[in-house]
Amino acid sequence: MALTSDDAAVSEFYERFPYPPPQDDVEAYRRAWSDARRRAESHLVWPAERYRDDRSILVAGCGTIQAAHYALRWPRARVVGIDVSATSLAFTEELKRRHNIENLELRQLAVERVGDLGETFEYVVCTGVLHHLPNPDAGLRALRDVLEPAGAINVMVYAPYGRAGIYMLAEYCRRLGIGRTDHDVNDLAATLKALPADHPLTPLLRNSPDFADRSGLADALLHPQDRSYSVPQFLDFLARGGLTFARWVRQAPYLPWCGALASTPHQSRLAALTPEAQFAAVELLRGTMARHSAIAYRADQFRLDAAFDFDADEWLRYTPIRLPDTIEVRDRLPPGASAVLINRNHTYADLYLPIDARRERMLTAIDGKRTIAEICDQDGDRAAARTFFEQLWRWDQIVFDSSL
Ligand SMILES: C[S@@+](CC[C@H](N)C(=O)[O-])C[C@H]1O[C@@H](n2cnc3c(N)ncnc32)[C@H](O)[C@@H]1O
Q1: 99-151 residue pLDDT tens
Q2: CA angle, 270 as apex, 158 and 401 as ends, to 5°?
Q3: Which of 5, 80, 129 to mutate to test the pocket of ligand 1 (most atoms within 8 A of CB)?
Q4: Total domain count, the chain
Q5: I need a labelling partner for 89 at 20 to 30 A (CA). Which of 63, 234, 301, 377 fits?
């Protein structure tokens, strides 16, 4: 049957526990998305393409709100949301009606059968879904097959090491035969309060918004189908799906130049590895990554535009664009620093970038229009500028428009 997932248990689960828990923050969300924010997102995904805001977007496994969010983020785009859960789609339909969201179409359809839409898309977003499929490879391949040749996919799947505590408690629940009745879920929530402070699940319970309510708890601990991917497994997964890794949505946590790793005796060994080997090693050192989010392109399309070469002179013609959610902090500064740059989406506290007054002048000169060469012309020192713009890029402070 075309509508449902191959796994009835997963479909039933999301009828009962729609994700995320229905909420209506739509107007605040609409207000938060300016043209500058859209431009930064566009160049994060397609650095070498001219900014456009009228793309075709598929949100696969959209849950209760994600498709509505994308339609609001990109009011001139055409957005299609698919999901197997009628409950989740009904909630999005209601948002669409209530907030007059005209560029959104919803279909009850399994990811594995997305080809039934008979359409292709420039941007496919699939977050928190594929690791729940009985055959994630088939799901990813189906999405790849509806991707336009120059399209991009944004995939998020679970990562194993940061979820060790979840898998322990999931196994515990299986052993006790804990079900998904209200009674069982409430008893489980009460029991978790007795976990020791150093149990691997405790930091997740404390810090992850996903555990704040009953459906988050059920999603994590009682899910009928849940697997995770280490970095090498994730990269293989993309390759089997006919895709090429382009970049992490937020890359600093994976890089040996960023954060506490940069001052360890192993930094130079790590830096000498291939990017894939670096990501795999850093995942092991960080030890707590719970998900991987990446942008990937079709493997049959030759594209070199997601990595930047700071060795040739190319970098001078890039136009840097500040990423939203980056902030400058001026409290408790390290010696010589005039500010510390932070990306608020990073969850690791060591990923801050101290800058001095000179670098701050270059930072302030970023206006989304000037190229690095034009910014340097004001200040002069190209070698310092090269290091600094590479750092800003690695630390997820900026993306580049390299289309011109
Ligand atoms: C954890 S939620 C993620 C929702 C949304 N992507 C987000 O990030 O907020 C997983 C969603 O995938 C949907 N789903 C599970 N299996 C699916 C399948 N085979 N095809 C389409 N949707 C599926 C579920 O119904 C649920 O809404």
Answers
A1: 999 999 999 999 999 999 999 999 999 999 999 999 999 999 999 999 999 99
A2: 70
A3: 129
A4: 3
A5: 234
